[in-house]
Structures are given as C-alpha cells and as structure tokens.
Amino acid sequence: MVKSLRGRWLAWLAALLAAVLGGFGLALYAESRKARFDEVDAELLAAARVLEGSMRPFSGPASDRPLSPPPFKGKDKGKGPPPLPPQELDRERMIRGLGLPRAFRDRYPDIEVPPYFAVWNADGHRLKAMGDAPDERPEEPNIEDTYYHYHRPGRHEVVVLGPNRAIILVGRSVERELAQLHSLAWRITLTGLAIFGVGLLGGWWVAGRAIRPIAAMNETAAGITADNWSRRMEVAGAPTELAGLAGAVNTMLDRLEAGFVQQVRFTADASHELRTPLAVMMSHLELARTQPRSAEEYQQTLATCERAARRMKSLTDGLLTLARVDSGKLELAAESVDLHDVAEEAIALLTRLAEDHRVTVTLAGDAAPAQGDADRLTQVAVNLISNAIHYNRPGGTVTVTTGMADNSAVMTITDTGVGIAAESLPHVFERFFRADASRARDRGGNGLGLAISRGIVEAHGGNIEVRSTLGAGSTFTVSVPGARDGGPPNDES
Amino acid sequence: MRVLVVEDDPDLRQAVVRALSEDGYAVDFASDGADGLSKAMSWEYDAVVLDLMLPEVDGWELLRRFRKTKKTPVLILTARDAVGDRVRGLDAGADDYLVKPFALNELRARLRSLIRRAAGQAHPAITIGDVVVDTAARKVARHGKPVTLTAREYALVELLAMHRGKIVTRTMIYDHIFGEDDDSLSNLIDVHISHVRKKLGKDFIETRRGLGYVIDG
C-alpha cells in the first residue's frame, strides 16, 4: 500500500486516466471502424441496387420462375432445363453482359483487389460471377430486409434480392480499410499513452503543489516545542479546506499551551511550596550541628523539623488528592451523610482555632441528607470554615447554614472577614492561587484547600460557589445531590 | 556587622537569625515587607537578607524603594528558582541570589563576601601590622598564632579592619555590631575595646578623642 498522500493521489489519477483514455480510445476506434465500413457497405449496396436495376427490364411481371443457369457450366450440359422462351434468352444474354456499374469502378480505379459481384438464380445456380466472388450462394435475404451484409474474412459483401428471386452479391476486399484501422488503433494507443504520461507528470506536479501547504503546516508543527509555543499555522493564506484544519490545530495548540503553561506553573508552585519547609529543616539541622547544643535546643530543632515535615505531608497529601481528582480516581464512600452533621463535626474540630482568632462560629438550618463520603465532605467543611476564621477580623462571626434546596443538600459558610477582590474571585479555586502573596503562610495554608474542596464537591456531582464583597466578607455555598428519600441514615440499599 | 533578615516564615527566620547571631552579626529581622522596608531605610545595615514572597509589601517592591537611596548589599533568599526570577532579582538591584532550600554555610559565606566587597576588600584576609584578620574563617592571628576573641570582639575588630585608616565613630560601632535587641549601654564599647587591646596589643586600636577609633591610621 502506498503510504504517501502524493503517491495515493497519483495512483487514483493513474487508474482514472487509464479508464478514461482506454474508454475514449476504444470508442473512437469502434466509431471510426463503423463509419468506415458503413461507407463501404453503402457503396456496395448502391452498386448492388444499380445491378438489380439493370436486371429489372428482363423480369416479367409476376415472374417467379428462377432464372436459367448459364448453359456453359460444363457437367449439366445436355440435360439442362427445357429451352427458354425468347424473352428469357434475352435476359440471359443480358445477365452475361452485366458488369460493375461504371460509377463504382470509377470510384476505385487503382484498388489492388477490385470489387466483384455474382448473381444466383432462385435455384441456387450461379448465373454470373466476376472477380473474387464466392462459389456458394448466400442465403436469401428477407423480403422486408431486401439486403444484408455477407462477410467473409477480409471482405465486405452486400446481398440483395433481385428480379425473379435472383440473388445479387457485391463485395470487395477491405484489407486496405483494415490496415488503416490497424494503424489508427496504434495511433490511438500511442497518443493515449502519451496523454497518460503527461497526465501523470502533471498530476505529480499538481499533487506536489496541493500538499505544499501540508508540508508547511508540518514544518510549523515540528517547530513548536515546550520552549517555543509562539508559532501557529498560517490560516489566512491557506486554501479553504486546510484553513479549517489549520484553525482547528491552532485552537488545539492554544489549549495545549494554556495547559502546558498551567502545568509548568503548577509544578513551580508545588516545588516552591515544598522548598520553604525543606529550607526550614535543612537550616535548623545545620544550625544544630554547628556546635554542641543543649538538650532543650535539640528539642526545639526537632519540633521545628517536625512542623516542617507536617507541612510537607499536608502539601503532598493535597497534591495526591488533586491528582486523584484529576484522574477521576478519587475514591468516595457512598454513605448516607447529613451536611448538618458534617458542619457540626467540622466546627467542633475548629473550636480552638476560632477561639484563638476570637471568631464566633454558629450553625443554623435543618438536616441536609445526601449520599457521599462523610470524611471528604468534612474535609471540605473544615477547609471552608477554617478559611472563614482565618480571613475574619477579631470579634467577627462565621455562620454555617445547612438545608435542602431543589433536591440538593446545601451548606453555606458566611464570614464577616476581609472578603475577596472581584478580580481574584474567579481564581480562588485555582491551585496555589492566593489573593495576598503570603498572608496564608502564617496559618500554614498551602494554597490547595479550595482547589481540593472543589475537587471533592465536584466528584460528588455537586458544585461550590463563592460570592464576596471586599471588606464585608465572603459566602461559600456547597451543594451536593440530596438523598432521594431524605430519610434517616443507615439505609443500606 | 549588622544585617537585616526579612523573611515571613517564622521557623526559617529563626534559623537564619540564630546562625548569623552566632557568627557575631548584629541581626535585626522583619516578618513582612512593610516592617522590613521601614527598618532597612532607618538603619545603615551591612547587608540585607530578603525573601521575595512577603505580605504587605513584596520583596520586589521593597528592593525597588530601598535602592532609590541605599547602596547596602542585598541578598535575595527565595524559593523562586526560575532563571527569570533570578535575573529579575539581580537586575532589580540585588547583589546575590540564593534559592531555598540552602545551606546555612553558603548563606554565611555569601554574606561575608558581600560585606567584604561593599567595604572594598577583595581579599578575605586583612593584614594590619602583625595581626591578620581572616574574615572567611572569622579568626584573628597575631604573630602567626591564633588569638581567641568573643564574637562581639571579633565583630569590632572586623568593623575597624574593614574601615582601616578611617575613623569609626562610636555611633557606627553601635549601629554595626549591636542588634536592636541588644543591651547597648555605652560603656560596653569601651569594655570590648579594652579586651581587644589586651589580646592584640595596646596600639592596635587608636582612640581619637571626641571622634572615635581607628586601626592602622
């Protein structure tokens, strides 16, 4: 199988050209042959009609009697038919005197094999023969058809019904015509082959031109690397069909580039987040080893290193969760869970933090039963409520409300904190996004909390939204599909 | 020598501050950019260690405002390791760039080098008469024999040696060898001076009454 587009294109072109040229050549040859032989036949027929006309004066009215065979045909001499009436004798003389019409002879003055003719009577006796005429009497033509062509190899012959059911045959050799047709066939074949060759060359050239934009696109695509995303396919100058492809490829490249840039930034951010606790560990360990330290100082170093290690663990846990979310492999228990209970547990876990920040956390609303993973949903609640505490002001409040809305279990967390700037709002769920470069560092946040929360909620088939007013506070709303019956937990079905 | 450490991560800041203090530096610190900038502008530090990701005022902005008037060497200490970040940092006026995680030893060596260069001393060892001050090893030798100095005493000798031939005022000594948390009673300088004279010779440090002190004047 030909792999190259140009080769395939050319193979199709070759097949098409061969079919067209072959068909055309055959039709041309057949038409020429028919025209040539029709002409021959017409001439022969015309001659036959003239012969028949010149015989007609001897035919009596309604005379069906066969014409007499020539008396000079040797063996039959003596026991021939009865003597002819005088009228018939005249006829015989006349027949013997028959010759090819002058016009016919004039037509072929220098023919190698001259035309010939023969006349048979109704009994099958050959009355007259000239030239290369056949010995056997041809079959009698139909009355309606009056003539037909009687072909022997290399000859064309016309047979017509003459007076008294006599049969007149006029023929001539068509060797010359056959030779001409043979030569014509050769010329058609050679011309066809030449056209075929030129067509293929032209096709090769045209195919080359047609695939040139593809080659250009190929070159462009090859020029795009991780370091250089700037190149794009030429759309304006490309043919319509390829412009569509180029546009589609460009769109795909844009998406790829965005994904790549995002990936690079994510990796840089993740490594950045890992570097700081690593730096803490390395510097404290190095410091501890520069000189002998007291047991208390060693304890302090160990405590610091443990904090740093926990930070790294939290980060790697977060990255792992996100990787599972991305690959759709986040395993979620499908248990009956009430968001009200979830919020209650999260608040209990964060009591100490709330006290430290002098923030009051209140829980309101009704049961919000859903199907889901209680631990993961608690993780979401803890993330959101601890954010609400951290970004609050001293003496502020965090209000958690749960309930059902449109068959969804909903939990809203409203704080009275610093709020989020409008331009930051669309990005808060992005990984490592921080409205303030490192405010979050104080609380050991790693910039993944909201991204993970969104991942978990979306894996539950729910969604998470945020509204915020800068300086007044933010509201995060989590909704997950509610349990169908809204019934109590423990239904095992 | 007095340095300022601007770093928002408390654990890391603590390690750097302690390491530099143990080397005899007077160390001030700031945990956000605004505090860092106000300190950097109000004191004559010998070097500044600067993180880039800072609350309030980030490291770039701090450096930009600081460089309008100050020539103090600045070492950027950051987790941002991209080449673009390093170039941007150096072009913004930083003198050195160290990526986290780092070895404290390297940070120390780079700071020494920055301070030495800023004082116009290319060679790490400064020879004054029969005394050699090895700023790399932070050791002093007299007649080829090592002399044991306390960190403060060494800092005093180094400060004077870096400014050899020039008068170093008492204010400069306060500014450069005592941190903001040190108890800087004025007579302490006299105590340190007399200790150094005992160890390195009576005439090693000259007193210019009413002006200050000078080495090799």
Give structural notes.
The complex is a heterodimer of chains A (493) and B (217). Chain A has three domains: 5-72 and 86-179; 240-326, Signal transduction histidine kinase, dimerisation/phosphotransfer (DHp) domain (Helix Hairpins); 335-481, 2-Layer Sandwich (Heat Shock Protein 90), CATH 3.30.565. Helices cover 49% and strands 15% of the residues of chain A. Chain A has helices spanning 5-55, 86-96, 102-107, 175-222, 240-290, 295-326, 339-349, 351-356, 374-390, 449-459, and strands at residues 116-120, 126-130, 147-149, 155-161, 167-173, 335-338, 360-365, 369-372, 397-405, 408-415, 463-469, 473-481. A five-stranded antiparallel beta sheet of chain A has the order 2-1-5-4-3, covered by helices on one side. In chain A, helix 5 (240-290) packs antiparallel against helix 6, helix 6 (295-326) packs parallel to helix 10 (449-459) and helix 7 (339-349) packs across helix 9 (374-390). Chain A is rod-shaped and about 160 Å long. Chain B is of the alpha/beta class. Chain B has two domains: 2-118, Response regulator (Rossmann fold, 3-Layer(aba) Sandwich), CATH 3.40.50; 125-215, Winged helix-like DNA-binding domain superfamily/Winged helix DNA-binding domain (Arc Repressor Mutant, subunit A), CATH 1.10.10. Chain B contains eight helices and eleven strands. Chain B has helices at residues 10-22, 33-42, 59-66, 83-91, 104-118, 151-162, 170-177, 187-200, and strands at residues 2-6, 26-30, 47-50, 74-78, 96-99, 125-128, 131-134, 139-142, 145-147, 205-208, 212-215. Chain B has a five-stranded parallel beta sheet with strand order 2-1-3-4-5, with helices on both faces. The longest helix of chain B has 15 residues, at 104-118. Chain B is elongated and about 50 Å long. The A-B interface holds A 268, 271-273, 275-276, 278-284, 286-287, 290-291, 304, 307-308, 436-439, 441-442 and B 8-9, 11-12, 14-16, 18-19, 22, 53-55, 58, 79-82, 99-105.
